[in-house]
Specification:
The chain contains one helix and eleven strands; from the N terminus they run E-E-E-E-E-E-E-E-E-E-E-H. It is mainly beta. The radius of gyration is 18 Å and the shape is globular. The two termini are about 35 Å apart.
Length: about 210
């Protein structure tokens, strides 16, 4: 996956970060198992100083861009700091999905009845949804997607657990590249598009009587 532009609120990664090989080749003999972080310049033949901070901590997702690296099992909550569309609180988890890959996500918790959906923000299309779990195999082409975790009824909040995983095809489908361009404009624009899609879907549903 490749991040092209803009800032990211947070990236959720489970496990121990690995270092690339000493020769700078991530596929070289020094490559360790596990997720990796690679830093490069957006423009060719440019360079300079930069800072990279990695914190081993539990992060409560709020109404900012959050990227996920599969697989993830995380404890989260819906509250005042989360995105609120017409009384429906929700968290947005963005990820790159190659053509032919399958994403699965499930939510458990006793505080509210969950609603889980997979969206493709470039087209504003909800490709799959469910009451507590969802699965989708990408037929639209390698692109940015997001999992939306919300509530079935407006005005609800509380803790929940999210399990997220991507199953990749053994080989690129139809000759498609396995690298996904996540943000064609900016992360902020992607989140704005996601919020607009939820606002449109929930239009006319008041917090007092709103259900999905």
């Amino acid at each position: 996956m490749r991040l092209l532009r803009g800032s990211v609120g947070s990236i959720l990664i489970a496990g121990t970060l690995a270092c690339s090989g000493d020769d700078g080749d991530p596929s070289g003999p020094g490559r360790a198992a596990g997720p990796e972080i690679a830093v490069s310049a957006f423009a060719a033949a440019t360079g300079g100083s930069y800072s990279l901070r990695v914190d081993p901590r539990t992060t409560d997702v709020t109404c900012v861009i959050t990227l996920m690296v599969s697989p993830i099992a995380t404890s989260q909550s819906l509250g005042a700091s989360d995105c609120n569309e017409n009384g429906f609180l929700g968290d947005y988890y963005f990820f790159g999905l190659p053509l032919g890959a399958t994403v699965t996500a499930s939510v458990t918790g006793a505080a509210f009845q969950p609603f889980v959906a997979v969206w493709q923000p470039d087209s504003g299309t909800r490709v799959a949804s469910g009451a507590a779990s969802v699965s989708y195999t990408n037929t639209l082409g390698s692109a940015l997607f997001y999992v939306y975790v919300g509530t079935q009824t407006a005005g609800m909040s509380g803790a929940y657990n999210l399990n997220f995983a991507i199953t990749y095809p053994a080989a690129p489908v139809g000759g498609a590249a396995d690298e996904v361009v996540l943000f064609r404009t900016s992360p902020e624009a992607a989140l704005s598009a996601a919020l607009r899609a939820q606002r449109t879907e929930l239009q006319g549903r008041s917090p007092s009587s709103g259900t999905r």
